[in-house]
Amino acid sequence: MFGFGKQKEALLDIEILFENDDVVVINKPEGVMVHPDGHHEGATVVDWFLEKYPDAKGVGEPQKNNKGEELERSGVVHRLDTDTSGVLILAKTQEAFEHLKSQFHDRQAKKEYRAFVYGPVREKWGTINKAIGRSPKDFRKRLATQGAKGTLRDAVTDWECIGQGRFEDQDFSYMKLKPKTGRTHQIRVHLRAIERPVVGDTLYAEHMMEQSNNLGLDRMALHAHTLEIMLPDGEMQRFIAPLPACFEEAAERLAEEI
After folding, report:
1. Is 149 left (phi over 0), alpha (psi -120 to 50) or beta?
2. Dihedral (Cα; 179, 183, 188, 194), 10-degree rounding
3. Are residues 166 and 221 in the same domain?
4. Are residues 25 and 121 in the same domain?
5. Which DSSP symbol is given to 42?
6. φ, ψ at 51 (rounded to 5°)
7. Catalytic residue from among 37, 55, 81, 201
8. What is the 3-state secondary structure (H, E, C) of 189-238?
9. 230 and 132 together in one domain
10. Considering the chain, what percentage of its residues have pLDDT values greater than 70?
């Protein structure tokens, strides 16, 4: 059984990777939402952020959910999906927010993810260049194949296969992924589009999870490993969120079976 819910106490242990007067960079735990969405209960990264930095309340841009309710997004410049762990940068001041926002908007921020996927990958590296729209069947999903509805937005993901093998007679691959754009669920949608969805992805790989050993993992196997970005003081920095222990163990399982 995959359990993605986290107790509020988990937020008290959020790891800070870097901090100065402008920003704080954290290693977001999997299973924790970045900000409230008006639909789900539970503490969020923003709750933790405001408890630690109350003067940052209101930093950012107002945003409402589909009910017209204003969301508490203080400090949020970019997001990670709830079940994705890894490096996340938050702005302490409005000036820092505007600077970081422009870095992401102009595609100057460079991100690298790690993921385990179902099945073998035949090539060593490649690029997925598929526009992303909405799924006509499930409002929660995005789609990068024929049939997507709404506005199709360009989306590009470079990838490299850094390991593959078998575990209990099933094939898996270990991927390094560098999204060039920042669409909702981009990596998950792109990997689903090439029929190599992320292990443990309850939204895009449910059909595979039910019949797989899931590489012995009990979470979605997607981690934001590095972020390279220019800070408001003009210094280029590269932040690294250490790989979860379960990722290291999964990589060892594949290596042992080769």
Report:
1. beta
2. -70
3. yes
4. no
5. S
6. -65, -35
7. 81
8. HHHHHCCCCECCCCCCCHHHHCCCCHHHCCCCCEEEEEEEEECCCCCEEE
9. yes
10. 91
Domain hosting 60: range is 1-106
Band the pLDDT of 256: cuts 50, 70, 90. Answer: confident
- Domains in the chain, number: 2
Strands 132-134, 149-153: pairing kind? antiparallel
Q: Judge if 1 and 99 occupy the same domain.
A: yes
Give dist(CA 132, CA 154) in Å, integer.
6
pLDDT of the residue at 6: 41
Q: How far apart are CA 15 and CA 86, in angstroms?
A: 10
* Whether 201 is catalytic: no
Q: What pTM was estimated for this model as a whole?
A: 0.91
Structure confidence by residue, pLDDT tens digits, 11-70:
458 999 999 999 999 999 999 999 877 566 778 999 999 999 999 999 999 877 667 677
Secondary structure of residue 88 in the 3-state scheme = strand
Whether residue 115 sits in one domain with residue 90: no
Burial class (CB in 10 A: 0-12, 13-18, 19+), 128: buried
Average per-residue pLDDT in the chain? 91
Same domain for 192 and 174: yes
Q: Are residues 167 and 233 in the same domain?
A: yes
CATH number of the domain encompassing residue 122: 3.30.2350.10
